[in-house]
## 1
Amino acid sequence: MLFVFIALCTIAAILWLSEPGSAVNRRLGALALSGGTGALAAVLDASWRSYAAEAGASESAQLALYKLQAFSSVFSYYGIPYFFILFAVAYRGVRLSRSVSIALPLVLLLPVILCVLFTPSYNETYPITFDIVVWWAVPYILLGTAFVLFKKVPPTIYARTHWVVCFAVLPPVLFVMFMNYVLPSMGMLRMWVYNTWIVGLGTIVFVLGLFTYGFMGIRILIDRKRFDFTLRAVTSGTAMLNHAIKNDAGKLRLFAEKMKRYAAETKQEELLADVEAVLAASRHMEEMVARVHRRTEDITLRLERADLAAVAEEALHALKPSLGSIALHTNLSRGWTGMIDRAQVSEAVTNIANNAIEAMGKEGSLFVSLTETKRELVLEIRDTGPGMDRSLRMQVFEPFYTTKRTGHNFGLGLPYAYHVMRKHKGSLTVRSKQGEGTTFYLAFPKKTLLAERGGE
């Protein structure tokens, strides 16, 4: 049980620290903590209180341990169904008015309050009155399970994270429902000792999900911080390098112009040709420096209300000459407007779509869609190209990383698009498998963009 206590408290801390403003994460973290306190009560009962007594601890210390055990046990029994139903409501995305969203937690807390006030107090045999608690705890858990299981998830990268949540959360909670409430109400006590294995399985799913598809957006947050740090380093480093190269290229151009005039005056044709080559090289250096600088400098947004579908269509229209035999399929939900930097978003879409076109070569299909979730507008760009293996997929947002060998590709298109999305408080994620194509998801938060649906 000590493992269960440590594992669940660690999960609660990860959920709370990853995104403190998320009601879903806060409530799921509270659910994990409730399970952890139950494990703590079991550890206190099985060993810690006995060790304290054998070590000659004072009566007050032993009483404090007993009270901690009582509180932990009762908090766990009442907290698991309560926090689970609250998590399920938030995760399902049930639309509630402000007054209802404030009142709902209080209404759902009523059975807990009534049980605390009007049922017998804690004892080690009957920590709660099982045959009463079961009548509200089980419905809470079953209703919450239905909310989570039948949540409508669009076919994006979030679909996989949804199933990670289902497999990590639902089996342990349903198992605990039988062991902690149903069977004890039938007289089969202390069945909670069998919870260790199922909670351990849920922990394994949580950890695996965290480092593969993500869990409640946490993996995205880890990647986001890493890429933000890399972009800041690249921005400051290239700014200094660009400045130095630009100054030297300017000096080179000035002296070459002077040499060109001298060569022309003295009619030295060979020298004149050499100087022209030097001037061309200096101009090329300045052009390359300017291009790198534009892609690595910090972006300043110029926000205006714009239709996301229209911006995507304009960007795709400009790429039509590059499509060749590639089929373009669009399914853009019209009417959604938001405060965005039209030019920057268009450039980000162009970079991603152009990468997809180059990856497919002469043939394939490019699918672009704009869908909505409760909190986000998701622009999906999918190709039928060769796809990427895991190692390549993990590096696509790294500045200057590129698989292209032409002299005009710096590996800055995707980092730039990522930076644009971060500036809009959104996210850019990728899903790809070798041989199965690649999909990019540009997720714009409705709240930040002040998004509105035309005609509503």
Note: The beta strands are 304-307, 327-332, 336-340, 365-372, 376-383, 427-432, 438-445, 452-453.
## 2
Amino acid sequence: MHVFLTGASGYIGSSVLRALVAHEHEVTAIVRSDQKAQAVRDAGGRAVVGDVTDTDVVRRLAHEADAVVHTASAEAVDPDFTATVTTALTGTLKPFVHTGGIFTFGDSTDISEQSPVSPPALTAWRAPIEARVRASDVRTTIVAPGIVYGRGAGIPAMFVGDGEHEVRLVGDGSQRWTTVHVDDLGELDVLALERAEQDGYVVAATGDNPTVRAIAEAGAHGSPVVAESADDSRQRLGTAYADALLLHQEASGAHARAAFGWRPTRPSLVEDLTDGSYVR
């Protein structure tokens, strides 16, 4: 399958690119620079230097491809991009996989695809866009990843210590985060693409839901781990970002396993922080 991919030079998108190539799909990725284009080519894809806000280029690439995977999701990008893609794919059987996010569901100890939507201010913009994507006539699947980790990057990198300087929790650290390794997420995106559901939705979570304190203690490597009040976290990180990280979220990812045949195999976040990709 010839796949038009966005975000191929980014954290999630580069993993999706690797997974698509590993599964013998042909990939055309839109990137912003020659340097990023070379990285795409080195990974086995074809690169087009351009911008995802250029609707003419997006329309052309969507028409030329057999499928679209959008990982460069952003408030300033998604309204026009998703409208252009869904219009281009209407009347075809071409699948469109769109990246969502776990924050959409707010505080919950049992997040599933049927859970009510209650996003924090940080990601409230996603809901109307996703509603329009799902209401289209296109074969769309929204993949909503938990806290993405792995390869030494992602939000959890904020808790990596040097054995000397303190590692600060977000709040008291009692909240749980539902998690997914970036490479397991890439595999799920490929499965979603190949499944090509009509109005599909899947929560990308491995079922591992550690507390923020457990995450920080695993990543501290001898640095002191320090709790703070929620207000102090808001002052340090910004209110919108802190409020998202203060959410208590747990998910099993059961639907991804049962319906998509997804089998996450990478180390847990705590394991990866303790002796994996985050060790300096």
Note: DSSP finds eleven helices and 13 strands in the chain.
## 3
Amino acid sequence: MRAAVVNSPESPPVCAEFPDPEHRPDRPPLRLVGAGLHHVVRGLASGRHYGSEHAYPLVPGVDAVARTEDGRLVYTGLARSPWGTMAELLVTPFEVELPAGADPLAVAAGMNPAMSGWMPLTARREEAGEPGTVLVLGATGVSGGLAVRAALSLGAKRVVAAGRDPEALEALRGLGAVTVPLAAAAPEAWAAALGAVVAEAQPALVLDFVWGPVAEAAFAALGRTGTEDDSAPVDYVQIGSLAGTEAALPAALLRSRRIRISGSGTGSVSKARVIAELPEIIARFGDGTFDAPYTVYPLSRVGEAWAHQGRARAVIVPD
């Protein structure tokens, strides 16, 4: 079959022949419709992601929209290594049918980033009920923007969206979010801006898609003085690290606040839990709550797709 093939961690994929995936009698092969080129896909292929198996050659891709033998469109993923989803044929352990009205390529582009915010939001809702005030750091990226939409759709009282892109922030403001620009200013200014919105309503949940100095600014904003009992707990969930892989955590913050800092990603959330949530997430692509901009690349141009940048997510489709 034709597939995107990564031959070494230093090289981009090329379109080449690759052995068909191992067939299973209970799982007929699916045919690719579109596979999103997510940050995690590049990280796994290059060996930079903690989940990489460092075995080459491999077919990249963690999820896709595909067509079944009887013509249904389904969302799927978790193909067995070295097979990924950027190939003409897929053999995968699950499939979730797309609802009527859902753009299959928007689903391919958006499901993986949508999951990253959805999972901690629903975990918080199960543990504590209504999510209260939610602060999203990195809200102008695809994942962060979808997390803002998810928080609003799940009933958050207040959603604060912090990010760099003014146009994207304006769109999120139109949905009902409070926005905090993080462009062009020093980290101290970010801390002051975040502190002003935190002072109005302490977040019950922080979703951090960027880490690095933005996280440090958020820690400063969340800090407090005095010895009065803290009013309410804060869950701080680290999801992405586009701004940096390290962040200094003040000891005083841990001692002065009822704060819990954790991560959400492959390994910390079970595959079974993720799969159970997929129908709810996909339904929001069907009803228009979620959307994801995308740029289409055929398999033959996968090298160009690998270098793609910008707001739209690259989606690989068959030639």
Note: The first helix runs from residue 39 to 46.
